[in-house]
Amino acid sequence: MKHFNFFNFGFASYDPVPDQEEASTPEYRDDKYLTSEQIHAVASKKPNLILWYVLTSVFATLATFFFVQNMQMRRRGGFQTGYSNELVLATPAIQVSQVRFTGGIKFHDNGTMYRDTGPGTQYVGRPSPELDAAWDELIGTRYLAFTDRQKSAFDVEISRSNEDGLYRAGPDVFHSLHCVDKLRRTIDGYLYQISEQVDETYQNILHIEHCLDFLRQLVGCSSDLTPIPLVYSIGAGFPVPDFEQLHTCRSFESIRKWAMKQNEDALRTI
Ligand SMILES: *[C@@H]1O[C@H](CO)[C@@H](O)[C@H](O)[C@H]1NC(C)=O
């Protein structure tokens, strides 16, 4: 067996001692000691240059790769740190964790289809004041106040209010949620035949079209790669999508808390 001798002084890789030498120097039989010949033999061995070259190249390639990746991260940002086009002031509020989605369409064993509402606050279903209140609570103040000093954190044009001298902007997540709520209210009017909720004015149609087209872009933009597997359902008698998968999410609750505090703090300065 060829002994690997990378550093050229590793005691673990010395060559076996010839039998006659063992016999002639019995006082060095203890494994802990090397004879002067052994040390000389080890020290005079040539280093394995090819291995040096290969490992140095691998190291250099990896270092370059991580350097470039780090530079890109700094320039463009990331999901956990915030992207460079995002609201910089909100990035400390980003908390990423894995969350299992709820609300899947399922089948009872007798073949009846149902929606598994899951635990917690409900946001869809038969219209009620409670549902509307849940949405209002979720979205809160969509356009938050920012002070004159905080304005420098924005890369985009933003107008100063004539009334209180503050600037207003909102993270897009609030606008997107508002769009979902807008669609919900309009669709519910038709689904549950609530004529007073049906709004076919030109303005509402524009609004609905805007929301649909906006959400299309948003969903494509995040291109979530979480797999939705088809799993055989006894009740359905065929494989059905299992939507309730783990997703990697930014905590909306954390962003919402930051947003409400930002708005209150800015308002307190006037
Ligand atoms: C099927 O089963 C579910 C749950 O046990 C039940 O609520 C439902 O009424 C059943 N449907 C029919 C058509 O029997």
TrEMBL record:
Pathway it belongs to?
Mycotoxin biosynthesis
What Pfam families does UniProt report for this protein, alphabetically? UstYa
Q: Which keywords label this protein?
A: Membrane, Transmembrane, Transmembrane helix
* Stretch forming the signal peptide: none
Q: Which residues cross the membrane?
A: 50-68
GO BP terms, alphabetized = mycotoxin biosynthetic process
Q: Looking at the keywords, is Chaperone present? A: no
Query: Does the keyword section mention Lipid biosynthesis?
Result: no
User: What is stated as this protein's family in its record?
Assistant: Belongs to the ustYa family.
Question: What is the protein's given name?
Answer: Uncharacterized protein
Native organism: Talaromyces atroroseus
